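batch_manifest entry 22 of 60
target: Similar to Zn-dependent hydrolases of the beta-lactamase fold
source organism: Richelia intracellularis HH01
requested by: lab member K.T.
priority: normal
notes from requester: please return tokens only, no post-processing; we will run our own comparison against the previous entry in this batch. if the run fails, retry once and flag.
--- input ---
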Amino acid sequence: MYLTYLDNNTWLIEIGNKKILLDPWLVGDLTFANLAWFFKARRLQERLIPENINLILLSQGLEDHAHSRTLKQLDRHIPVVASVNATKIVTELGYTQIITLTHGDTFSFGQSLEITAVPGSPIGPMLVENGYLLKEIETGFSLYYEPHGYHSPLLKKFAPVDVIITPLVDLALPIFGSFIYGRKKALEVTQWLQPQVVVPTTCGCDVIFEGFLASAIKTIGTIEEFCFLLKQNEISAQVLKPQPEERIPIHLSKRKVEIN
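--- output ---
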């Protein structure tokens, strides 16, 4: 397994001999409803679109997960696995192979990979987007991704999971509080899933944030503090600190099967 962090929520995941482009924002600015005065994110350097992508995986339909300008640059014949909300975006853009997963659904990608949708981030009162579990069939190695730190207790039945990609710090707004949950939520899901490796996401390493909303956002916690929480709770998972465009090999060990 290899992970390449392309900043913000965007990852290239190489698993089961497949290249999965996850929540891509690679070109152009990022705004919501074209309200740049309210929120705008821009890259210091645009990312090259990875070659030989086998699948696009979209957890949400919001622009920071299903970035329209980026999706317009990609081959519309690449298969897409998407949440219900993200399906609307890629349908309008003319993608030809769309697999919509609701919570509990599993998609088998050839004979090498299974993708299961689990409850993820709530968007308003009526919509809950997707988190994903990816399982490599040959080895049994698995990966869990949820970009806002909303982890369903239903995940417990999938334990152990080898790799977790999720926020490790909180992002908060005055009065409203946190809208991205790391810290305690990341610790909780780590206790549930017993991963070998934990990887932070949604950190915007090489991104400049502008606008009214961006100026009010506060970061609470650090990756170092999260590592200390793991140590306090006697959790031995390795915490990685990926740099943008760094292709990281993930070295995993086969777990012993306990026989009662």
